[in-house]
UniProtKB/TrEMBL annotation:
Domain of life: Bacteria
Record Pfam families: Glycos_transf_1 (PF00534)
Protein name: Glycosyl transferase, group 1
InterPro entries named among the record's database cross-references: Glyco_trans_1
Domain Glycosyl transferase family, chain residue ranges per copy: 245-407
Lineage, highest ranks first: Bacteria, Pseudomonadati, Bacteroidota, Flavobacteriia, Flavobacteriales
SUPFAM superfamilies referenced in this protein's UniProt entry, alphabetically: UDP-Glycosyltransferase/glycogen phosphorylase
Single GO term (MF): glycosyltransferase activity
Keywords noted in UniProt: Transferase
Organism: Flavobacterium frigoris (strain PS1)
Length: 436
């Protein structure tokens, strides 16, 4: 019997969602599957990653294409879409790539296809064609809410995707608002009934259950996998040395790839920390007993009113990111609209409790008083009080909470736990196929 052949499709292997597709591809290969990742854009060298290459255009065509791209970006960013919804493409039917070109780039006919973050690469018509041509079972892993909607990646409190996406709030121009409705109608027409959707949080699972496009499809919830060998518990005082932070300071870790993004809620971080400072001062606790490690691209003048010592770093590589979790007494997430953030999974796997709003995967992973504390959405006072609870724990309580974090993570979303769930899905999907 030959290996089961898996094709992963993603727009890129860069950024958070792109790296996620790499994680799945690696996990499948380590489990013994023949898995390849096909991407439109890449910056990694990996034998199991295939970069889709169109025929090379001449210099003039390249120049015109680049200028068109710049004009399109300006129009979309400033005139057509509202930033917070992350809506990138008005017409989901248009694609520069054909389904046959995608399949010709891969050295096999896949038995199973996993779709990841595919906006700008694979549309719903192509998904239908992939299913028809290959007869492969298709799973779509929700990295955000784009699979559910007529174009936006984050719907916030909009429930238009429950029915038709009419009068889309993400589109500024009234005469273009029907485009989202047309996109969703196209999805409804093309998404195969046997395609199965995989969500990575209960919030996304519930949204998917209400989505018009997946009314008749099977929907799963499998927490996003974290490598338990890389993301591990270590001595906190030792880990602080990597950032030149004194060992006697209890550390709050806060970070995101783009902290200024509205979804990441930096407003509530600033409010929460100011309230926390007041609580400390009211109780006669010295602010110098604590420190804040911030990772991400952000202007430091935002922190001018924070008196707790701040250690700011730009984006951290994976090794440094792990060190940051290991050094910290608590990870603070202020995301207000998110399918993750993945940093919550990573922190908990490193034995670091989390304080977060009841949004995204935090709802799944935070058991208040056990693995951290959940706060009501937009409640900065609750964030501050929950940070205070963790930062003033004695060593025994702190060690117990760290232990609970690690044990829960290993049990529910380690590679070992995740691949068990994916093995079941894959084996069930090919059970009636002759694999030879």
């Amino acid at each position: 019997m030959r290996k089961i052949k898996i094709l992963n499709l993603a727009f890129t292997d860069m950024g958070g969602a792109g790296k996620a597709s790499l994680i799945f591809n690696e996990m499948f290969n380590n489990e013994g599957y023949d898995s390849r990742l096909l991407v439109k854009e890449s910056n990694v060298e990996n034998n199991n990653v295939i970069i889709f290459a169109k025929k090379k255009d001449n210099v003039f065509v390249k120049f015109i294409s680049k200028q068109k791209g710049r004009i399109k970006y300006v129009l979309n960013r400033y005139f057509i879409f509202k930033d917070k919804y992350f809506f990138f493409k008005l017409n989901d039917n248009l694609s520069e790539i054909s389904t046959k070109e995608i399949l010709n780039a891969v050295p096999f006919v896949p038995d199973v296809i996993f779709l990841h973050w595919i906006t700008g690469f694979v549309n719903s018509k192509m998904i239908n064609e992939l299913a028809a041509i290959t007869k492969a079972k298709i799973f779509w892993i929700m990295m955000d809410n784009a699979p559910l909607t007529g174009g936006c990646h984050y719907p916030w409190d909009c429930e238009g995707f429950h029915s038709s996406c009419s009068n889309c709030p993400a589109i500024k121009l009234s005469f273009l608002k029907s485009k989202a409705e047309a996109n969703l109608a196209t999805k409804k027409l093309n998404i195969p009934l046997n395609l199965e959707l995989i969500t990575c949080s209960i919030m996304d699972f519930n949204r998917a259950k209400n989505a018009a496009v997946f009314k008749s499809n099977t929907i799963h919830k499998i927490l996003f996998p974290i490598d338990e060998k890389k993301f591990s518990v270590a001595d906190r005082d030792y880990a602080k040395q990597y950032f030149s932070i004194p060992s006697d300071k209890k550390l709050i870790f806060y970070g995101a790839s783009n902290i200024n993004n509205t979804r990441k809620g930096i407003k509530y971080f600033l409010e929460g920390i100011r309230i926390l400072q007041n609580i400390f001062l009211e109780k006669g606790i010295h602010l110098d007993n604590y420190a804040i490690l911030i990772a991400g691209n952000v202007t430091t003048n935002l922190f001018s009113n924070i008196e707790i010592p701040i250690y700011h770093h730009s984006l951290l590589n994976e090794e440094k990111l792990i060190n940051a979790y290991q050094a910290s007494s608590v990870f603070l997430s202020t995301s207000v609209e998110d399918s993750g953030p993945l940093m919550v999974n990573q922190a908990v796997m490193c034995g670091t409790p989390v304080v977060a709003f009841n949004v995204g995967v935090a709802v799944d992973l935070i058991n208040s008083g056990i693995t951290g504390y959940l706060s009501e959405l937009y409640d900065s006072h609750s964030l501050a009080q929950n940070l205070f609870r963790i930062l003033t724990m004695d060593n025994e309580m702190e060690m117990e909470m760290s232990k609970q974090c690690r044990e829960m993570a290993i049990r529910t979303f380690s590679y070992k736990a995740a691949i068990s769930n994916y093995n079941d899905l894959i084996n069930q999907s090919v059970k009636d196929k002759i694999i030879y």
